[in-house]
Amino acid sequence: MRPDSLWRIPDFRVLFAATAFTQLGTNVGYVAVPLVAVAALDAGPGQAGLLAALSTLAFLLIGLPAGAWVDRMRHRRVMVVADLVKAALYASVPLAWWFGGLSLGQLYAVALLSGGATVFFDVGAQSVLPGLVGRKHLVDANAAVVGLMAVGNVAGRGVGGMLVQLLTAPLTVAVTALSHLGSALQLTALRRTPAPATPAPATSASPATGPASPATGPAPGLGAQIAEGLRHVLGAPELRALAVTAALTNLGSQLVNTLLPVLFIRELHLPAGALGLFWAVGGVGILLGSRCARPIAARLGHGRTLALAGPCLAPAGLLVPLIGGGPWLFLAGAGWLLVSLKTGMDNVLGVSLRQRMTPDPLLGRMNATFRFLLFGALAVGSAISGLLGELLGPHTTLWLGGAVLATAFLPVYLSPLRTRTRTRTRTRTRTDRPNRRRGRARLPARTGAVPRLPVQSRVRAWTEGAHQRGDRPDHHGQQHVEQQ
């Protein structure tokens, strides 16, 4: 093992093990919960769509404020509490079924509340990672986590389908509950994350001196902090393109995934194990994408790799609606594999890019903004899928989802990311540019005034301080910096 290996960091090993428990439970539940609705409670396409929409609705309701809240709390505590809440919620499903009281209403409540706990867990996990491994190891760490997620997709969904056949769907949900409990126990071994600083007032920086310094004045409120995160993501062309492409990918995938349980069980009359294996093929694609993302990016650059992967792989989404009996099932599976391969590459490189382009104080809000957009697309896709499934049928809805998947790459392909060959952390705005007419930087209007710059300028000031510390990307996008 290399002296600077990522796996020599004890806290990352703890987080990785906890993520393994979480991914196992999440993927078993991904198969089991909709099959509880379809097989045990006789749910139709509309009800299956509503269940899927509720599981991600929390990202629309509390996704943005959750980022600001997480920035004010200890990340470990947030993740432990979220895992315990999910364990209790999922444990209620087999208990209610055992005593004959399980209903769609309870399943809806479990989906909605567990989605809320997932909001906090995911934002906390993505925000704590840079502090545990340092920005130097971000690509390696994200590749390891995405690879683990892919293995979870393969193993968890495959095992979930088999367990449903052996134990019934409600009892399989108990495995999800136990997995989240194991994750919570594992996270207690994580070192106590430092208490977050009290939200600082708006920072300022002098264009002549560079680094930002706190400005006097009241601390920003929750609304101002949320708006700051939104401006950071939507105001930068590269971050905006990453967000839109990922949201469209989630929208298309959810249009497909929501109706697959109905299609497999009701129309194709296939066992639950076949559905689990089909979803597991997607996990294989994500694993392959996560493994090949860094070598390709080392040769082509992060942004260029993301841009070129789209037209090469995304059109395979049009193969997925061909799903049917015999060879058509295998052809649709091949299309799903290629689409998932692109998703695996996007997850490694896109997450690494956005973490590096974001200063530490904004990480929680940046992650929450992305989660709001990405999982909001899942909620919208689930609702649309259920509605169109009732009106037009599952196959027509799958064609719409395949078309969205095939074209989701366009925002990144048409953005400045297409020409990016290395990972930069600077974000420049008009207020940062020198006054070309006078040949000098802009100065405050009156002597002694401290200019209050917008968030993009403060990001630049923060990254200039990082550059002064030697935090410079090399030709492959790796940054030479120790712990944050």
Count the DSSP helices.
Answer: 16
Overall pLDDT confidence:
79
Run of helices and strands: HHHHHHEEHHHHHHHHHH
Helical proportion, percent range: 55-70%
Low-confidence stretches: 202-216, 423-453, 455-484
Q: Structural class per helix/strand content?
A: mainly alpha
Distance N terminus to C terminus? 23 Å
Please report the total strand number as a whole number.
Answer: 2
**Morphology:** globular
Give a short summary of the structure.
This protein has 16 helices and two strands.
Would you kindly provide a written description of the structure presented here, covering whatever features stand out?
This protein is 69% helix and 1% strand. With 484 residues, it is an all-alpha fold. It has a two-stranded antiparallel ribbon. The chain is globular and about 50 Å long. The two termini are 23 Å apart.
Keywords:
two-stranded antiparallel sheet; 2 strands; mainly alpha; 484 residues; 69% helix; globular; 16 helices
Topology diagram in text:
Layout: H1 10-40, H2 45-71, H3 75-98, H4 104-133, H5 138-167, H6 169-187, E1 203-205, E2 212-214, H7 222-234, H8 237-257, H9 260-267, H10 272-300, H11 302-313, H12 327-356, H13 363-391, H14 394-407, H15 410-413, H16 455-468
Antiparallel strand pairs: 1-2
